[in-house]
Write a structure and sequence with these properties.
This protein is mainly beta and 379 residues long. Helix content is 14%, strand content 36%. It contains five helices and 25 strands. Helix 1 crosses helix 2. The chain is elongated and about 110 Å long. The N and C termini lie far apart (65 Å).
């Protein structure tokens, strides 16, 4: 429809698209996603049918004028993020739409999205996270007061973000979003009480209820059997029990703990086995993933055990400190393989296999909550 008629056709008709170029102000209107130029942003959105960007994923006819703004066929926008939800793309644009803003919903059949040169298909079963209470995305799973302003970013109430992947860690949810947050990035930790994770329309139980009792079939090794420095090798002995449970066998020694000690002595010297950083390097050298923290919580230990992963726990079992292997839990306490013996007897009983250390005692020597020293080990 032209402003001025062209005779003899008039002011309405059709052009062969490759032979013309349409503009709106300074913007060239595009009609094929392949025509949208590559720009140094996360992605692009092409409007393929005149539509609305809206404040909610609803029919535009039912929304007030302040909750929607028209987008014309052929318009293109820089795209910073997106999510598939309720038959719409929730998009974050690199520039605001006049009279509307930079975040909204567009009907999936009226636009095409492209990221890194590839079309983004609408996925009704995609992962999303809905912010149910204003919260922070953090670079580390710690109290936000411990983080600088550059290590956290606020996510507003009600916002829906697409999620590339997630995992639970340290009583948080680590997520990678489909959106680059300005000055921050797209990966971090969220407090689970402030969010709702979904796959499609199905809510995800991030921390499913654990069994009441777990006891893993972890072999018992006594550090008293170690040929060298048996009095100070609880550390490598506890790690050796976990490694053996996962299938590791000694390569050149009958004693896996002593073989691990040799690895440390060769690289770090005498007594280095008491250094938790060195122990992390040892664990990785045997092909495992590991994390060590001095701020664990009891629920985190239960989660590891319920998922078939015995762990190494440090505490004041002796006057100089000691390390045990935790192989299970029950309502009354933790089940441990103690490489030095039975702590309840002051170690006069040297048999430390499958001992129940009750909650009160274990909290006294290893706690309190939030100050537990533990190595988590996984394949």
């Amino acid at each position: 429809s032209l402003k001025y008629p062209v005779q003899p056709v008039g002011d309405f008709g059709y052009f062969f698209e490759p032979h013309v170029q349409l503009t709106k102000g300074d913007q060239v209107l595009r009609f094929d996603i392949e025509d949208v130029p590559n720009t140094p942003v996360t992605g692009q959105m092409l409007v393929t049918e005149t539509t609305h960007i809206k404040g909610a994923p609803e029919d535009a006819a039912g929304l007030s004028e302040s909750q929607k703004e028209q987008l014309l066929l052929g318009q293109t926008f820089g795209l910073r993020g997106y999510a598939s939800t309720a038959g719409h793309f929730r998009v974050t644009l690199t520039e605001s739409v006049p009279n509307f803003g930079d975040v909204g919903y567009v009907f999936r059949n009226h636009v095409q999205l492209r990221k890194e040169g590839k079309l983004i298909a609408y996925d009704p079963d995609s992962l999303t996270v809905t912010i149910q209470k204003e919260t922070l995305l953090k670079r580390r799973p710690v109290d936000s007061n411990q983080l600088s302003a550059s290590d956290r970013v606020t996510l507003p109430l009600g916002r829906i973000y697409g999620v590339e992947g997630y995992k639970t860690e340290s009583n948080h949810v680590k997520v990678t979003l489909t959106e680059e947050l300005p000055g921050y990035g797209n990966t971090g930790y969220l407090y689970p009480g402030h969010i709702l994770m979904r796959r499609g329309s199905q809510a995800i139980d991030l921390f499913p209820k654990l069994p009441k009792r777990v006891e893993l079939n972890v072999p018992y090794f006594s550090q008293r059997d170690n040929p060298r420095f048996y009095w100070s090798t609880c550390n490598v002995t506890a790690i050796a029990m976990v490694a053996y449970y996962h299938g590791v066998r000694p390569q050149y020694s009958y004693n896996l703990a002593d073989e691990m000690l040799e690895w440390i002595l060769d690289r770090y010297g005498l007594d280095a086995q008491t250094d938790h950083t060195v122990l992390q390097q040892l664990i990785r050298a045997y092909g495992f993933k590991t994390s060590f923290s001095t701020t664990r919580k009891w629920a985190e230990l239960d989660w590891e055990l319920a998922n078939g992963r015995p762990l190494v726990l440090a505490g004041d079992f002796t006057a100089t400190g000691h390390i045990v292997t935790v192989i299970g839990y029950a309502p009354e306490g933790l089940i441990v393989n103690d490489p030095w013996g039975d702590a309840y007897t002051g170690y006069t009983n040297t048999e430390g296999r499958r001992l129940m250390y009750h909650n009160g005692y274990i909290n006294e020597v290893c706690g309190p909550e939030g100050n537990i020293w533990a190595h988590f080990i996984s394949r």
